[in-house]
Write a structure and sequence with these properties.
The structure holds 2 protein chains of 2 kinds.
Chain A: H1 10-30, H2 37-42, H3 49-60, H4 63-76, H5 87-96, H6 98-105, H7 110-117, H8 120-153, H9 157-204, H10 212-221, H11 240-257, H12 259-265, H13 271-305, H14 314-323, H15 326-356, H16 360-389, H17 399-407, H18 412-448, H19 454-482, H20 485-492, H21 497-509, H22 515-535, H23 543-561
Chain B: H1 21-44
The chains are: A mainly alpha, B mainly alpha.
């Protein structure tokens, strides 16, 4: 039996439609009554820790995290979990250091604090970097899941982008951060429900006589359960050390210096609530990612017993079917199906050997050999797709949605598609809101209209929110034509995240640091990361350590040698 | 724009869980280490 790309049932469409109508209505309802700018941007600073904490989590979990992570577990295993190992420690450090400074300063943006501590140019540069990177990445945040969903649902990309982006713009423009946080709470709840459903379905769909333990043993045999690689090789992307140290610096930079996160916890009704919202993530983030990755591994085992399609991307498969001579396609398909059947038989023999006390070692070797033959058959199919399109082919993000649409019924597929929508919308909403805040507070109010009524700033805030929403849709609509530029955009942030963290480190840890040291230290940090990325094979998680440490050391050195003027507030 | 700092609650002393901040931070660190230990066990478990 080949896993088809079966269409959604009527019940699925109803569930998806109910979700979209309900979340937009709920967002509008919760966002009523904004009268001041701090209502709009910081939800009146009245949020409880659990709501702000769920919002922090929801903003970080994008749709592509959800479908991409499961796909990655399917193809490569659970090693990606190392990425999150340093996160709990980062949350503790931020709760002790940056959060109290931001909260007591009563700022709207993290960058506003830098002007108070250093000078306007450091604030402006960091805020500008945030707007550039987050603004462009926003288009990718919208485009990537829209592309996957358009293929899976059979819609045009334009329709998916406009539906996802438009629905989010509607409630964020009206309700601001209060709408963002409360819809995030609902969406994060839905995401958790979806994760448990997916794990449950993947377990219950294992064939008779094949227990969860057998499934895990099979995955373990292929190395897919490896989560704690102790290698000291800095070029390996996901090791315990890159996760603990590089991941910790990345999490400190993201949760401590990225306005899309800072704004969530600054909405807390007290410093305690703000701190707890971060610590809440420290407890839940790693277990959540573990479950998402485990789902991908179980889907991998599932497709031992149900034949996967030749290519996971249906649109590419159709293109290949049209372009490749039928005899050639039939040959590749036959090799692929035979290899799949062989691996299935080997997997069953492996389980049998485990149960009946047979030669488990020989069965394992047979299974691994069969797996390699299937890998070769899949590689040949990919080469076929690449020869047709002329571009590298990667369908990792299509694996999980295909599993959902082809295997779930009775409205469950619609629910999980709604979860993917929820994950996308929860990221977009927080980012629209934070981009509007930085635009208004760090630029418009700082340089254009320094004094105006609250009503004026509120109206302009809504305009900025709408602008960033429309901008995201336009970038997403053009993203298909950008090709490899998308990758550049995605990497753009990693060049300066650590450096911005270094500036904040200078600000709160070294009372003697001067504005000149902070500004030129920031430039030196970004340069160092760029050089390391271009001239070495060091894994990207280490860039954040390089950037932060360089800024810190250069900033201190400049302060010691040529300190320059004191911060404006201390003169 | 309103005076953002006016009337804000800065209740560092009120800690709803574990009694004190050092204890909460300690709980986070201990739970992170336990999770890492469990992951190591999971990866190497003889299923």
């Amino acid at each position: 039996m080949t896993a088809g790309f079966g269409a959604l049932s009527r019940a699925d469409w109803v569930v998806l439609a109910v979700y979209l109508v309900a979340i937009v209505s709920f967002g509008l309802w919760m966002g009523r009554g904004n009268r001041r700018v701090d209502d709009f941007f910081l939800a009146g600073r009245q949020m409880r820790w659990w709501a702000a904490g769920l919002s922090v989590m929801a903003t970080q979990v994008s749709a592509i995290t959800f479908v991409g992570t499961t796909g990655q577990a399917y193809t490569k295993g659970m090693s990606f979990l190392a990425f999150y190992l340093g996160l709990p420690f980062a949350m503790v450090i931020l709760s002790i250091t940056l959060v109290p400074f931001f909260y007591r300063a009563g700022v709207f943006t993290a960058y506003e604090y830098l002007e108070r501590r250093f000078d306007a140019r450091t604030r402006t540069l960091t805020s500008l970097l945030f707007l550039l990177s987050r603004g462009l990445a926003l288009g990718v945040t919208l485009y990537a899941p829209s592309l996957v969903l358009s293929v899976v649902l059979g819609w045009s990309e334009t329709a998916t982008i406009l539906l996802m982006g438009g629905a989010t713009i509607l409630y964020v423009v009206y309700g601001g951060n209060r709408s963002v946080i409360w819809t995030d709470v609902v969406q994060m709840g839905l995401i958790w429900v979806g994760i448990f459903i997916c794990v449950g379905v993947a377990i219950t769909r294992l064939p008779d006589g094949f227990a969860l333990r057998d499934a895990l043993a099979l995955a373990q045999t292929t190395g897919r359960l490896e989560t704690m690689d102790p290698s000291l090789d800095p070029t390996r992307p996901y090791t315990v050390w890159s996760g603990l140290f590089g991941g910790m610096f990345l999490a400190m930079a993201y949760f401590g210096c990225d306005q899309s996160q800072v704004q969530r916890y600054l909405s807390g009704r007290s410093l305690t609530e703000s701190r707890l919202s971060l610590l809440f993530n420290a407890f839940l983030k790693v277990p959540m990612q573990f479950l998402i990755l485990l789902t991908g591994v179980l889907v991998f085992v599932f497709f031992h017993f149900h034949a996967p399609p030749l290519l996971w991307n249906r649109a590419e498969l159709v293109r290949v079917e049209r372009a490749v001579p039928p005899a050639e396609l039939q040959r590749v398909q036959s090799v692929f199906e035979a290899a799949h059947l062989e691996r299935r038989a080997a997997a069953e023999a492996f389980a049998l050997a485990r149960h009946d006390g047979g030669d488990e070692s020989a069965a394992r070797e047979g299974y691994l050999a069969a797996g390699r033959r299937l890998d070769e058959a899949e590689a040949e199919a990919r080469r076929l797709a690449e020869s047709v399109s002329g571009e590298p082919y990667n369908d990792t993000n299509y694996i999980f949605p295909t599993f959902i649409v082809s295997q779930l019924s009775g409205g469950l597929a619609g629910l999980i598609i709604a979860v993917i929508f929820a994950a996308a919308m929860s990221s977009l909403s927080g980012e629209f809101n934070s981009l509007a805040t930085a635009s208004l507070v760090d630029f418009y109010r700082r340089y254009v209209r320094t004094t105006a009524s609250d009503g004026h700033y509120l109206a302009v805030s809504r305009l900025f929110t709408a602008f960033w929403g429309v901008f995201a849709c336009l970038v997403a609509l053009e993203a298909g034509r950008l090709g490899s530029a998308i990758e550049v955009v995605n990497k753009f942030g990693s060049y300066f995240y650590g450096s911005i963290l270094g500036v904040f480190g200078l600000a709160v840890l070294t009372p003697s640091a001067r504005p000149r040291g902070a500004f030129y230290g920031l430039l030196a940090g970004m340069t160092a990361v760029f050089v390391v990325s271009q001239l070495t094979a060091v894994a990207f998680l280490w860039y954040n350590v390089v950037g932060a440490v360089t800024v810190f050391l250069v900033g201190l050195a400049i302060t010691a040698v040529a300190p320059g003027p004191r911060p404006a507030g201390t003169r | 724009m309103p005076q953002e700092t006016a009337g804000r609650r800065d209740d560092e002393s009120q800690v709803p869980l574990f009694g004190t901040w050092p204890r909460i931070y300690g709980a986070v660190v201990v739970s992170a280490l336990v999770v890492m230990m469990l992951l190591t066990l999971f990866s190497g478990w003889p299923f």
